[in-house]
Amino acid sequence: MHSDKRSREFYILAAFFAVFVLFLYGPLSAILILSFQGPNGGLTFPLNGVSLHWFFNLFETQAVGDFGGSFQRSLTLGLMVMVTTVLVSLLAGLAFRRKFIGATPLFYLSVASLVVPSIIVSLGIGVVFQQVGFQPSWYSSAFGAHLTWTLPFGVLIMFAVFNRFSPSYEEAARDLGASAWQTFRHVLLPMIAPSLIGVGLFGFSLSYDEFARTLMTAGTFNTLPLEIYGMTTNVTTPVLYALGTVTTVFSFLVIGGTLALIIAVNRRRARS
């Protein structure tokens, strides 16, 4: 009787998860399939032939859209945001391990941008840059706008990591004569390395596909999300789907590479 009840609960949860996955990846699978349209294919089903024509078309000169430039800008911006998010989050996590005056207001101030609508943040930063005489651009104002989105998440993750971290390891290292830098380099950093990699991936992924906070701050040149949005009103060929497929595959490769790096770090730490 009890076993039958567990079986029913299992199948119900499995069915719910299957529906969730279908809802999540169903639209993505449609774009993936339509990107393999033949040369005379359109934007809807059914497929008119099957080919890689539109993928090769991505690397040709386009009447509308700058795929290569926008991808390079998004990649560069994502890497800049990733490095900054990791460094600032790590330093904030180390600083908040000790009590200091103003710690609580500073904490709430650092995460306050999460509750502000993204488009308002983008508009505010764009207006401030124009008022002080600077031209908004993807590498300055958009960079700052993205940090208002990635830093709170990175800081919260590092707070959770350090709250579970026992200081006894550092105390043992100091008892053995290690300096503060040696303790950080050889004890603390290897133990929190997987979490730092996760913060970096989180920062990169949030920045790479951010649209709202980039809309008013990117300046003259578009990032990839802005370029794709602009193409939806001009491009009437499956090349747009091919671009979506390529960027999705790139995102999964980044995630897979990060997971492989975390596994390698954990194995190395286990051997040590």
How would you describe this structure to a colleague?
- By secondary structure, this protein is mostly helical.
- It has a domain at 67-234: MetI-like (MetI-like fold, Orthogonal Bundle), CATH 1.10.3720.
- Helices cover 72% and strands 0% of the residues.
- It contains eleven helices and no strands.
- The radius of gyration is 23 Å and the shape is globular.
- It starts with a helix and ends with a helix.
- 24% of the residues are buried.
- The model has no long low-confidence stretch (mean pLDDT 86).
- It is a multi-pass membrane protein.
- Residues 71-264 form the ABC transmembrane type-1 domain.
- It is found in: Cell membrane.
Sum up the structure in keywords.
0% strand; 72% helix; mainly alpha; 11 helices; MetI-like fold; 272 residues; single chain
